[in-house]
């Protein structure tokens, strides 16, 4: 599972870094059209997460994930034939639909594979995922430097091959069978689970921290500080390096929903510390600004580790085993919606307000994270009541529902 995820993320790193340049500079599509096509495809893809996860619960997560990876391999290969905005929209939409369904199935598969020490397994998994993205991004840098049509096509087809190889590697896993749901359970149980729906919204909101590093901070450094230009590249390198080195050490200790609630709060506090540090870079001389950027991204990366670990503990821990795919599809929907809204929110509110905007962002993260412990208690309490409803007075399954 770790090897398959690593291979897949190397391909993602190859493609994501250079895809926009390929369509704008090589295919010669206007940047506005490329952005519109990818935005439309992303919104269409949101529709597949919950149904795809439900299908994984009923047909087995490995089967659905392999099917989704195969569709993505075909769609990615078709991108080399794209010459128009309409074709890009259609192909990208197919890719995003498969990605959403596959992401939900992946979540259900992670639960089935990492049963012995789930927190340690998920932490290791994310470590190698981050490492894969880093290696893929480095590889993409060579293609960008070459800047030929052939180099970009090699990147795209390499990503397609990574999907196919990932699907083949999943053959090495057991074909986990679907778990039977309790009798008389609603089909779309995740949508009626109020604690989990609340966590989905909060997780999507906390997810603003990712584009704060990848989008907002580079613009801030370039336009509002005297820091050297190399600090923009250093931001990504430090962020990835900290996550690769410390994810397993920290994440392996965050196992239960209670642990996840506390980790969610810790993440918010770390972001409350990092955001003002980022704001101060605009008021510091050159080398002090560079030092503040490095320190701020280190603290922010620690927050990212706590945030992702809390997402694992709460996202998997609050979901019933027989409906993990559906629940992970809902969680992915909330996260993706937050990522779609993030650029507009961050560039207008934070950049528009400047230093005050960074301070508000930090307080926002802290407020969202503060809900974590009470949310974990609420979710755990409702799970206990659901278990009691299925069991009879003696603790055995109620015959009326057996």
Describe this structure in words.
The protein contains 15 helices and no strands. Mean pLDDT is 84; it is low at 388-402. The chain starts with a helix and ends in a 12-residue tail after the last helix. The protein has 402 residues and is mainly alpha-helical. The protein has helices at 2-26, 31-45, 49-59, 61-78, 85-113, 118-146, 149-169, 194-206, 209-224, 230-251, 257-280, 286-317, 324-353, 355-370, 372-390. Helix content is 80%, strand content 0%. Helix 10 (230-251) packs parallel to helix 12.
Question: What is this entry, summarized?
Answer:
The chain is mainly α and 402 residues long.
Structure characteristics:
single chain; about 80% helix; 15 helices; mainly alpha; about 400 residues
Class by SSE composition: mainly alpha
Averaged pLDDT: 84
Order of helices and strands: HHHHHHHHHHHHHHH
Measured as a percent range, the helix fraction is over 70%
What is the number of beta strands? Answer: 0
Morphology: globular
Number of helices: 15
The separation of the N and C termini measures 35 Å
How many whole angstroms does the radius of gyration measure? 22 Å
Largest sheet: none
Poorly predicted regions: 388-402
Strand content: under 5%
What is the element layout, followed by pairings?
Elements: H1 2-26, H2 31-45, H3 49-59, H4 61-78, H5 85-113, H6 118-146, H7 149-169, H8 194-206, H9 209-224, H10 230-251, H11 257-280, H12 286-317, H13 324-353, H14 355-370, H15 372-390
């Amino acid at each position: 599972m770790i090897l398959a995820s690593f291979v897949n993320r190397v391909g993602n790193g190859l493609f994501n870094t250079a895809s926009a340049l390929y369509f704008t500079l090589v295919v010669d599509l206007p940047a506005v059209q490329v952005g519109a096509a990818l935005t439309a495809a992303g919104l269409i893809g949101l529709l597949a997460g919950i149904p795809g996860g439900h299908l994984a619960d009923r047909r087995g997560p490995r089967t659905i994930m392999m099917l989704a990876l195969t569709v993505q391999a075909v769609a990615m290969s078709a991108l080399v034939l794209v010459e128009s905005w309409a074709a890009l929209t259609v192909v990208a939409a197919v890719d995003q639909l498969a990605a959403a369904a596959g992401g939900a199935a992946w979540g259900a598969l992670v639960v089935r594979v990492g049963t012995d020490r789930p927190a340690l397994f998920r932490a290791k998994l994310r470590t190698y995922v981050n490492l894969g993205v880093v290696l893929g991004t480095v590889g993409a840098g060579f293609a960008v430097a070459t800047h030929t049509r052939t180099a970009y096509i090699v990147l795209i087809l390499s990503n397609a091959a990574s999907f196919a190889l990932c699907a083949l590697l999943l053959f090495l896993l057991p074909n986990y069978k679907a778990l039977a749901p309790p009798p008389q359970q609603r089909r779309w149980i995740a949508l009626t689970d109020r604690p989990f729906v609340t966590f989905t919204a909060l997780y999507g909101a906390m997810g603003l921290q990712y584009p704060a590093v990848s989008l907002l901070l580079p613009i801030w450094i370039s336009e509002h500080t005297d820091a050297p230009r190399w600090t923009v590249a250093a931001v990504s390198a430090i962020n990835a390096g900290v996550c690769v080195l410390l994810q397993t050490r920290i994440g392996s200790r965050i196992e239960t929903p209670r642990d996840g609630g506390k980790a969610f709060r810790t993440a918010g506090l770390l972001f409350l510390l990092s955001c003002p540090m980022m704001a101060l870079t605009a008021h510091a001389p050159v080398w002090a600004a560079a030092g503040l950027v490095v320190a701020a991204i280190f603290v922010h990366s620690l927050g990212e580790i706590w945030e992702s670990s809390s997402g694992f503990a709460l996202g998997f821990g609050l979901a019933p085993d027989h409906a993990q795919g559906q629940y992970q599809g809902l969680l992915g929907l909330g996260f993706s919606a937050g990522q779609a809204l993030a650029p507009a929110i961050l560039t207008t509110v934070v950049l528009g307000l400047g230093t005050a905007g960074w301070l508000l962002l930090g307080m926002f993260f802290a407020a969202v994270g503060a809900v974590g412990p009470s949310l974990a208690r609420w979710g755990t309490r409702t799970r206990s009541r659901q278990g009691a409803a299925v069991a009879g007075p003696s603790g055995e399954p109620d015959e009326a529902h057996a």
